[in-house]
Amino acid sequence: MVLAPNTPPQTMQAARFYAPGDVRVEPVALPAPQAGELVIKIDAALTCGTDVKCYRRGHPVLLANTPNSCSSPFGHEGCGTVVAIGNGVTNFSVGDLVVAANSAPCGDCFFCDKNQPNLCNNIAFLNGTYAEYLTIPANIVSKNTHTLPPGFAPTKGAFTEPLAVALRGVMEMNIQPGDTVALLGIGPIGLLMARVATELGAQVTAYGRNPLKRQLASTFAHCQHVVHWTEDLTPEVMKAATPQGYGFDMVIEAVGLPHIWQLATQLVRKGGKVNLFGGCPGGSTVELDTRRLHYDEITLLSLFHHTPAYIAMAVDWLTTHKLDPSPLITDTRPLTDVVPALEAVMAGEAIKVALIPEQ
Ligand SMILES: [Zn+2]
Ligand SMILES: [Zn+2]
User: What is the mean pLDDT of the chain?
Assistant: First the structure.
C-alpha cells in the first residue's frame, strides 16, 4: 500500500443515512485500502435528486442493503484526490484528481453478456461521497474511475455521474436535429437532459413550476420554450404549440409520478417516442390507452442508470468544456450542512448544493 505524505486518518467525518429523515454527520472508521482499492479525499460532493428521494422515503435500489437498525454511507456524486492506493493498482497515483462512478458492472453476468451493463446482476452501488474520504472498491477502480486534468474544478468533475445518466437518457432516444422535444420536469437531471438534447439540435419545450429552474431551462439548457406548468394545462393546449398540433416528436418524463407518465404518452405525435425516465414510487402503476400506443405506433422507453461508456463520455464532455454544468450549483456549504442542503433542495430553494468538507 502506498500512502500520501498527508496519510489519511483512521477516522473521518461522514454523513450516515439511518432512516428517511434521519441523516447524521458523525465520526466513522476509515480503513486502509484493500488490494485494488483507492482512498480519495473528497474535494466536492453534490446533492442529487436521488439522495433527496432517499432522505424522504428511502430507496429501493440505492440503499437497499440498509436495514433499519443500522446506517449506510450516503451521497453518490463526488470528486476527490487520491490519498492511498491498495496493492495492485497501477493506473492511479497519489495526488491524482479522480472521479469514480457510483457503480460498475461485473462484466460476467447474463446482462453484462447481453451488453446491458447498467442492468448488471451484481451491480453494487457506491455511496459515501458526503464524507471527508471515500474508499473506491476494486471493481469500480478498474472499470469506472477516471483521472481528471490537474487543476480541473472538482465541483465540475462531480457532475460526471448525473451527466452520464442524462447523456444515456437522451442519446438512447436517437434524437435528430430539429426534433421537437417536450421535457416534463426540470430538476437537475431534467435540465442536463434538456441541455444534451439542445446540443444535439433538438427544439426543447420545458414544463416546470419552479421559477429558478425555469430560468435555468432558458439560460443553461437553451430550451426554445419554457412553460410554467400548472395542473390545468391540458394535453390539447400543450400540443397546440407543436407543428400542426400533432404533438411532440419526443417526450421526456423527468418527474417520476404515474399521472405525469400518462400525460407524457398523450403529448407525443403519432410515431413518436416517449422516455419514461423519472422513477416513480415503488408499487405504483399507470393506465395507458392501448389504442393510442398501438395504432399511433408510440415507442416507449424507460431508461435507467449509466454504463461505463457513458461515464467516459461525460468525462469527455466536461473536460473538453463542451458543457459547463456549474450554473446548476446554486449553493456551496460545508459537509456538516448536508441535512440543510438536502432540505433546501427539497424546498425548491436550491438546484444542486456543493458540499465541501472542511480543510
Ligand atoms: Zn445522482
Ligand atoms: Zn454483470
Answer: 94
